[in-house]
Amino acid sequence: MNNWLPKSVLCLKSYTRRLFVADLLAGITVGLVALPLAMAFAIASGVPPQAGLYCAIVAGFVVSALGGSKTQIGGPTGAFVVVVFGIVAKYGLDGLFMCTLMAGVLLLILGATGLGTAVKFIPRPVVVGFTNGIAVIIASTQIKDFFGLKIEKVPGEFLGRIQTIARNFSSFSPLETGLAIVALAVIIVFMRYVKRIPGYIVALFVGTAAVVLLKLPVETIGTRFGGIPSGLPTLNIPHFHLNLLRPLISPAITVAMLGAIESLMSAVVSDRMSGDKHNPNVELVGQGIANILSPLFGGLPATGAIARTATNIRSGAKTPVSGMIHALTLLAIVVFAAPLARFIPLSVLAAILLVVSYNMGEWGEIPELLKLSRMEIATWLVTFLLTVFADLTVAVEAGMILAVLVFIKKVTQTTTVSEATEEYVREGHVHILQHKVIPAYVSIFRIHGPFLFGATDKIEEITTRLPSLPPILILRLRNMTAIDSTGLQALESLADQVHESGRELILCGAREQPSRLMHQAEFQQHIGPENMCHSIAEGLNRARAVYPEVSKRHPVGTVWGRRSADVLQESGAALPETAPIIKEIN
């Protein structure tokens, strides 16, 4: 039964006043951070700013109360800007609310049926491709407000938008441009040098104060939207147009899949930072309910927000209560301080969104992807270009088709027919485990079969047990027939986690295709070239050589530290022998 309980219920069983104080401070902090972001995402999506705030309030509270992650923050995100803008332009606000509600039902079904884990079947090149594309599109939508360009209507298509901006660039406002540049500089300085204080909040307050005190003639939320209404969000059932149900199916699937992907990616980030383990199906149920309720109060689609989740954890959040307080903080601002929002300059919000788009772009992934096979590079490039120049639905569909073709090719290449000669048998002796001494400080895992997207979560067999494992781990790849970029990323993450725990990771026996891809991607940088061994025999020798150094990272008070007193007599003393600690990862 606990498998279907929200994290909030599980955490409240042992809730204390100390935890509440930590959650209170974190919730207020992340609520203030969410204020400019929620409005900026709404404006960039072509809807009034209060739609973003209502989403952050309603969905933010529900995601924390009913979701499967301890510290995840839900609300509007940059990933939805492109999709929402297109839906609003084509079907209007009622169409957006219908689409969001339909997406919420789909997310609820995904979670309730246990299909939350199906999101893992979207490979790394596709995810990076559409993330890069969304970041470029968001940035392009903010150029007008950043420079204060006098453009009546900006086209929805990327090329048309860029052409219109180029034709009208001479109309830029030096005052609004200067204000945006100052806001941008403030955010960057605080992100780099004053990390404990969110730069978004400082930029928002500085920009708004400048407008009020200096009476700057710049475009603000008040001049464009008339401000935001104060008071509680009201329940308002949207008008359902039956003739829109069919055309909205495709956008609803896009919103649902995008929401599922981003929320689970954010939950993984939350797990790594907080040391928790999220429940993907419960998380999707929470996301589904949030997206059903958000449009009923005039809100945007919602998902997990990676940046706000990270801020929440860094601010000391311990349980989902912090996420609920974040929503209540925004509610208090809307109720008591809404009139002040009309002074917020749009150029400052544009500067904030430019930083957000840059941070969400995962640009550091591109050099890594370019080291991979041409087909994986093509998958990323096609997804990226179609996201920018076509639309997200087409991009993901095309990317997944290419990814499936890559998958089929890699699997078929693993099939071989060869004769078992005497030389083959003789060479195989260094790879078998029989008759080999396995030291007590070594644990051996082995991967069987293709380690491609969709199978990489099985590496959790190691990561979940990491605190109880010995100081040296050997990952045997003799029977891993193929690997792709997603599998490679999983191994890189494993290597980083192993090293962070003070342990050593040794890989051995990689076959031709995995070995070639690892070399192309410079995987050896993660564990050291000396820890890439040809066989299990070589891997065990490497473990014996490195153990004296590794043992220093494990104090005598620990299990392996106490055992090291008996084991560390490497010079001349016989190594202790134990039954092989071996686990298959199928």
The assigned structural class equals mainly alpha
Biggest sheet record: 5 strands, parallel
Oligomer: single chain
Helical percentage: 55-70%
User: What value does the average pLDDT take?
Assistant: 86
Query: How many domains, as an integer?
Result: 3
Q: What gap, in angstroms, lies between the N and C termini?
A: 28 Å
What does this structure look like?
There is one protein chain. The protein folds into three domains: 33-252 and 268-326 and 343-363, no CATH class; 367-413; 428-585, Transcription Regulator spoIIAA, CATH 3.30.750. It has helices at residues 7-12, 17-44, 49-66, 81-112, 124-141, 143-147, 158-167, 174-193, 199-214, 221-225, 249-274, 280-293, 306-314, 321-337, 346-360, 365-369, 374-389, 392-413, 422-427, 460-463, 485-500, 512-520, 524-527, 536-551, 559-567; strands at residues 74-75, 303-304, 442-447, 472-476, 504-508, 532-533, 582-585. Helix content is 59%, strand content 4%. Helix 5 runs antiparallel to helix 18, helix 8 (174-193) packs antiparallel against helix 9 (199-214) and helix 17 runs antiparallel to helix 18. It contains 25 helices and seven strands. It is mainly α. The strands form two sheets. The chain has a five-stranded parallel sheet.
In short:
The chain is mainly alpha-helical and 586 residues long. The chain has helices at residues 7-12, 17-44, 49-66, 81-112, 124-141, 143-147, 158-167, 174-193, 199-214, 221-225, 249-274, 280-293, 306-314, 321-337, 346-360, 365-369, 374-389, 392-413, 422-427, 460-463, 485-500, 512-520, 524-527, 536-551, 559-567; strands at 74-75, 303-304, 442-447, 472-476, 504-508, 532-533, 582-585.
